[in-house]
Amino acid sequence: MKNFIFCFTILFTGFLFSSCEKSDINYESDFEKSYNKWLTFKETSGNTYSYTVAGSSWSGPAWQTTITVANGKVTQRSFKFTSTNGLGSIVQEDMEWAEDENSINSHEHYAADALTLDQIYDKARSEWLTKRENAKTYFETLNNGLISSCGYVENNCMDDCFRGIHIASIVSL
């Protein structure tokens, strides 16, 4: 009987320690729900979709980047400024442009990286939602349960501090 109680105590203690394991990411439950919605969307869309990333600066300029993905591969990235207030001088060809499959990531400034939503969810889990003591984390799913805003802002940062992504829309193609 003593052996049974001893074994039961060890098993119960092990269960308690494993069930109290802390998560390494913020918004874990919301992230998992959104990730499951993503898997469903990915299947129903044939992994073919586009999404638009919105960006802006405290000084006035704003822009958007649209990424097109076909069968799980980025095939197009287009960019345009939606506001040029406070931008200063910029050459006309940098105001709006498009890249095809052969020139993806050939433009560097302002535009969002050409990532698939699989890559965005991976980055959210491994980078943007990682628990930090020195930052406030954000996570929203306003695109029918898919990521709309995900990232963090370090404490005491004053201007353009958000590290992450703001996705304005996601559509199946």
Tally of separate helices: 3
Distance between the termini: 65 Å
State the order of secondary-structure elements, H for helix, E for strand: HHEEEEHEEE
User: Low-confidence stretches at least 5 residues in length (pLDDT < 50)?
Assistant: 6-20
Structural class: alpha+beta
Strand order of the largest sheet: 4-3-2-1-7-6-5
Report the mean per-residue pLDDT as an integer.
88
Q: Output the radius of gyration.
A: 21 Å
Largest sheet: 7 strands, antiparallel
Compute the number of strand runs: 7
Shape: flat
Number of domains: 1
Give a short synopsis of this structure.
The chain has 173 residues and is an alpha+beta fold. The chain contains three helices and seven strands, in the order H-H-E-E-E-E-H-E-E-E.
Name the features.
173 residues, alpha+beta, seven-stranded antiparallel sheet, 32% strand
Map the helices and strands.
Blueprint: H1 2-19, H2 28-44, E1 49-56, E2 62-70, E3 73-83, E4 96-100, H3 117-128, E5 135-140, E6 149-154, E7 163-172
Antiparallel strand pairs: 1-2, 1-7, 2-3, 3-4, 5-6, 6-7
